Amino acid sequence: MTLDNNSLNDFLFSRFKNGDELAFEHIFKSKFNQIIGFCDQFISDHDDAKNITQEAFINLWLNRNKIEKPSGINSFLYTFAKSNCLNFIRHQAVEEKYTDHALHEKEQLLNAEVLESFDFNSLEFIELEELIQKSISNLPEKCREVFIKKRFEGKMNKEIAEDLGINIKSVEANMTRAIKALKKNLSEYLPAILVQLIVQYLN
Amino acid sequence: MYRYLAQEASEAEIKALFEWIDESAENRKTFIRYKQAWALTSSSQDDSEVLWKSLNKKDSFSKKTRILTLSVQKYAAVAIVIFALGLFVEYLIQKESSDSVYFSQTEIEVPPGQMSKVTLPDGTAVHLNSGSKLFYNADFSSGKRLVKLEGEAFFDVYSDKKHPFIVHTPGDISLKVYGTSFNIQAYPKEGEINTTLVEGSLGVFDQAGNELSLLIPGQNAQYIKSENKIVLSDVNTGLFTSWKEGLVTFRDESLQNIALKIERWYNVEIIFENTELKEDLYNGTILKNKPIDQILEVFKLTSSLEYRIEYRTDQPTLIYWK
């Protein structure tokens, strides 16, 4: 029997609710780096971002009875990360990245504002998150590999070519294909500026 | 904007961006949407396997880990000493560099007659034999997998191809592995160091970092300190690793030597009524953590050594062998 993505998710979710550690491990491994990546955008020390993320997962496990549906896992994790990042920004003295103190202050304020603007319980968020993940997973295999290496692993075209054993020209060609596909999938939903942003960086 | 989000922007560019954000509510809203989208699509590159293991250690979120913690506590003899205290106080006084706190070192000491099992921050399992010490720095988990061993230990190294696992010994040699299991005997007072590879591969290095030899599974490397040389041999690895299951295997060992060990493990005194017995050689395996009378019973059954026990108040128990 093969399971499609949705019923697999439901299956995992019910195992998780019943206290199955393997299911939790699976959820942990598939989402951990995303949550760290999220925290990294607001907190400059990677170890602090990791600690917040670990706390988020520990609390997710302890509060599993309160989570009602599969999408609730993401909402819980991001909400936890959001409020802890906010606390961190407000109460922890952090090392300043810039020589200009005013710039640092301004950045902290903006970070707090961005964090506060998230509503992780809204339908919009749940759908957006799913859509981005789905769009990436729907890319043709080579495209997806190139895209992930570039966007999530921060690699240069030359490194990607070496990793995948293809030439730079075909790395570039695959990036173009990935961008086109994402633009099409995402633009049905996302505001044009966001698509533009994601795509711009990839170029 | 995307240079800022990708953390590639210069300070001047960031300043210009922030000024632009302040120009209008519209600009501000645009920035917030951009940053939101960026944060939601970001991902770090941490090894989820390592993180999962560290989560398991960090919080006793499951029964399984609680039991583990308890059994570790049972080996109450394991003393963990933080050398860092002095350094940390110094740090508080000077408060010059926020980095100095990372010099702290953890020491795990197992007294004679005891054994212990510990899991290091990277997921590596270490069985420590009697009278052994293991040291590692607080920055161990951040890619630097370096420990110092005095005594005997069996390592089951968590596989990480990017970060070698290095063991320093008191005999001026180091061992470097990636993901493997091996045993080391490196007691400071003994004239040699033995390392036995069970699986994987293992390099033996001198202080200058030169590779002296590379072991394959089933090989033992004996480093003789006084001659500064290494002898490789094929061995039955079970002989070298069975101690961690509480088994002690003797191979052609004199009864006199065995008596010395038993004296150390059980705090007893052994007297040979027939001194010729001392040079007799014994082969066999015993379970170290059984009561002394059962051990003596095993010797009786396997090599017809008769024994007599004499309990004394305020003094070690006397055992007569004949």
Automatic annotation (TrEMBL), chain A:
<dbReference type="Pfam" id="PF04542">
    <property type="entry name" value="Sigma70_r2"/>
</dbReference>
<comment type="similarity">
    <text>Belongs to the sigma-70 factor family. ECF subfamily.</text>
</comment>
<dbReference type="InterPro" id="IPR013324">
    <property type="entry name" value="RNA_pol_sigma_r3/r4-like"/>
</dbReference>
<dbReference type="InterPro" id="IPR036388">
    <property type="entry name" value="WH-like_DNA-bd_sf"/>
</dbReference>
<dbReference type="GO" id="GO:0003677">
    <property type="term" value="F:DNA binding"/>
</dbReference>
<keyword id="KW-0804">Transcription</keyword>
<dbReference type="InterPro" id="IPR039425">
    <property type="entry name" value="RNA_pol_sigma-70-like"/>
</dbReference>
<dbReference type="Pfam" id="PF08281">
    <property type="entry name" value="Sigma70_r4_2"/>
</dbReference>
<dbReference type="InterPro" id="IPR013249">
    <property type="entry name" value="RNA_pol_sigma70_r4_t2"/>
</dbReference>
<dbReference type="InterPro" id="IPR013325">
    <property type="entry name" value="RNA_pol_sigma_r2"/>
</dbReference>
<dbReference type="GO" id="GO:0006352">
    <property type="term" value="P:DNA-templated transcription initiation"/>
</dbReference>
<dbReference type="InterPro" id="IPR014284">
    <property type="entry name" value="RNA_pol_sigma-70_dom"/>
</dbReference>
<protein>
    <submittedName>
        <fullName>RNA polymerase sigma-70 factor</fullName>
    </submittedName>
</protein>
<dbReference type="GO" id="GO:0016987">
    <property type="term" value="F:sigma factor activity"/>
</dbReference>
<keyword id="KW-0731">Sigma factor</keyword>
<feature type="domain" description="RNA polymerase sigma-70 region 2">
    <location>
        <begin position="33"/>
        <end position="93"/>
    </location>
</feature>
<dbReference type="InterPro" id="IPR007627">
    <property type="entry name" value="RNA_pol_sigma70_r2"/>
</dbReference>
<feature type="domain" description="RNA polymerase sigma factor 70 region 4 type 2">
    <location>
        <begin position="130"/>
        <end position="182"/>
    </location>
</feature>
<keyword id="KW-0805">Transcription regulation</keyword>
<dbReference type="InterPro" id="IPR014327">
    <property type="entry name" value="RNA_pol_sigma70_bacteroid"/>
</dbReference>
